Amino acid sequence: MLKKFNKHIKNEKGLTLIELLAVIVILAIVAAIAVPAIGNIITNAKVNALKADGQNVLAAASLYFVDGGASPVTDVQLITAGFLDDAGGFATTAGGLGASVTKVPNGSNTISGTSANSTNTVQFISATNATISATKNVSTGTVKITTP
User: Fold this and answer.
1) What gap in Å lies between CA 89 and CA 2, rounded to an integer?
2) Euclidean distance between CA atoms 91 and 128, whole angstroms
3) Which of 40, 43, 37, 85 is closest to 60 using CA atoms?
4) pLDDT tens per residue, range 30-84
5) Helix (H) or strand (E) holding 40
6) Which residues cross the membrane (predicted)?
7) Domains in the chain: how many in total?
8) Is residue 6 part of a domain?
């Protein structure tokens, strides 16, 4: 009996339909888990880029103020004065509404404005570097960053 069974197993080649279906189901489950996770990574990267644009404008404005520039200053003025190369998401061509930085005596300058890209918008309302870094991203809608 065992010899017949071993002989039968040696003659089998390939996979059965059930085995193929099991593999397909497993791959579908893995894909269903991976696709949303990848989508959130892309959204977070885009929002983080807009937040970085705000921090770049704040850094350029700090240099502008140290050089004796008047407060408040806009992103366009910073570009014209040579303190900023690109407004990033604040540029009206990118969908942004510009930025304005106000000098604060303790050094925590604040930025107000709207930065946007193709799918995301970040609104800065008297935000500092600390509040920009501390604000968590959301997957949909506008991220509002404000200093309490």
Assistant:
1) 73
2) 20
3) 85
4) 988 888 778 778 888 888 888 888 889 888 998 899 888 888 898 888 888 999 8
5) helix 17-66
6) 20-42
7) 1
8) no
